[in-house]
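Hi support team,

I submitted a single chain yesterday and got back a structure, but I'm not sure I'm reading the token output correctly. Could someone confirm the output below corresponds to the sequence I sent? I've pasted both exactly as they appear in my results page.

Thanks,
R.
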Amino acid sequence: MALSKWRSFNEWHFQKKLGSGGFGEVLLWRNASTGQSVATKHIREPISLGADQQIKLHERWQKEYNWTREFPDLDSIVSGLRLEEKHLEFVQYLNRTHACKLPVIILEYCDGGDVRKRLQLPENANGLCELEVRRILGSMRNALDFLHFKCKVCHRDLKPDNIVIQRGRNGEKVYKLTDFGLARQSPDQTMLQSVVGTRHYFAPEVLETGKYNKSVDYWSLGIIAYELSTGTLPFIPHQTPRVILQQLLLKKDQKYIAITEDPVSNQFKFHTKLPLEHKLTPCWAEQLEQWLPLALETDYRKRAATDEVQLPIVFKKLDEILQIKVLTIFVISNYKRLAYIISHNMNMVDLSLLISSDTGIPQHLVYFILPTGHPHKTLTLTTRPSDLYVEDWLHNSHETKHPPVMLYVVHAIDEGTLQAAEPKISNSMKYYNTPDFRSNQSWVMQHFWLVVHHFASTEQENLELLLLGLREYAMFLQDVLMQYRPSIDNLIEQRLKAAGAYEFVKRHLQIVGTPPSLEWLKLEEKCRVILDTVDRAKSHYLSNVSNSKEKEDKTLQLCKTWVKKDAYNVTSLQQIQGRANELEELKNHVINTAIKRDKFLKHAEINNLYTSLLKLNVHYIKLVSTLDSCHKNLKESQDILHKMLGTLMPQVQPESPAVFELSSLMNHLSVDISVNSFEDSDTDELIKDSLRLERLMRGNMETDQV
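Hi R., thanks for writing in. Yes, this is the structure output for that exact sequence:
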């Protein structure tokens, strides 16, 4: 039936065609009454096929129909739906209008498209983000485990096109395996025989002998893992199947995970590492590089190896790397991304040592800043790196609202400028960008585009990381300053009480006519210094709060300006992907990216902002110390005033109204703050402490405002 004739049947309304293949198409239907959506798979009339081929096609179709209806509701496999009980007439309508006398396959609808479409997005040209790679591999591992060991089925056509995406309850993506048209019973130790699947995902033994077992799915999983991580296929995909097979079987050692072709010598190169152009954290990429040789083992017998409990080694090792926790970090001062595999036993000292080793920042000057919205809320003495790991934040693309890293780090010094090492450039990039490089081969130009895209998009991401990091730094300083507001208010209250006590004692001395003693003169000086210090501390605090808000506003403005204008023209670069033969345009993009990077890192406004935040940080640290000293000295001053008042009180007759007033007020003179208890000391020592404090405060507080 022509697609244009699909309209609706009762409450079931045809929505659109989801996709099509050689002999079939998938349609989307929605029930107007219940809101349920389903996908229906239809076979088109195979006119071009011979009788034997039609028989095989019908057998495969019937087999897929049966299998999908047998699967329970699994998180990793698309389930077939049985609509006969509630919607029998709709099912009969679909089957009645089917091109063949075969039942239409009705499946749960996965509304997120498929992984192939994800890979085809321009922003994913260099592969998917780490979280997505992990979750897809984990889902496919579970799907294959169910098919192989529960159903005794070999899928035989594992590829990104057959991994569909469903939105979970919280909006997160759920990846499911579908399309079981090539699935076949695969009892243990049984070798299948026939060439099936999709060319680039064939295991070598399929093409070599046509005999294979379920381990062909492990090979396909390895190919998919490489493609998800890099955006490209591992084994010279531009070559013919015969050449690929020859290189794999005759020359590929077990340790190699990729083969490329040199565009000049046309010699094949064998690789044990992923290319530089990917989005994975380096530490997890290394783990994946150790797993890939297990899946991409050309000897199917070794590939199918199991452990003592008959768990495939390829699954066992994959489970291990999928459990690894990686803490992502951006070092603002060094313009550098870091990532570390963390364990529960690791502490923050261990982490600071690693950062110090990789950045040159002294360990005691490694300053941690949590991104806004981090579930751990704040760093404490008991915080561990494992507390800072947030799995969802491994998804660092623009489609999420997650912070791009789990932790920011700054070099806590008085002043400094941004320090950035030269960017990592692959050998391919260096070669392609030489004046003599010329090529008219499409695969070469496509590879050139991929390395340029990675270079430009990485620099754009680093730019955004720095600006977001500076904003987080400003907000952090504002937040910690605001946390001291109650302490400031309490300090001002103490100051008023101390000033009142001082005035009452002074007035009392005047009433009794006692000449001012040396002790009193020294205490007067101490009180004036302390009260003045408190006033300046308050002013300094308010200035810092205002300053931090100003810096936050500035960083927000810079973020909007630089991110909005796409500083490295990544968007325009993505638009020429289809015509990647624009050689000079690609070369110019590399040069312009390098120039813009240098200008950005030397941009006066950004460097001034960074320097002012460092100074503000130092002011905050000094302010905290000053506030502690102010609390201590106010307490000591009040103790002395109390003691003096106690010695003076007997000189006054009880009926003296002034004394009654002083006594009544002094009874209410209590310091409502948690302070350290100090032993009484003589007045001379207190005065010396006060004078030392005054010199310290004048040095700390009378610095230039940031």
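A quick pointer for reading it: The CA atoms of residues 250 and 298 lie 10 Å apart. Let us know if anything else looks off.

Best,
Support desk
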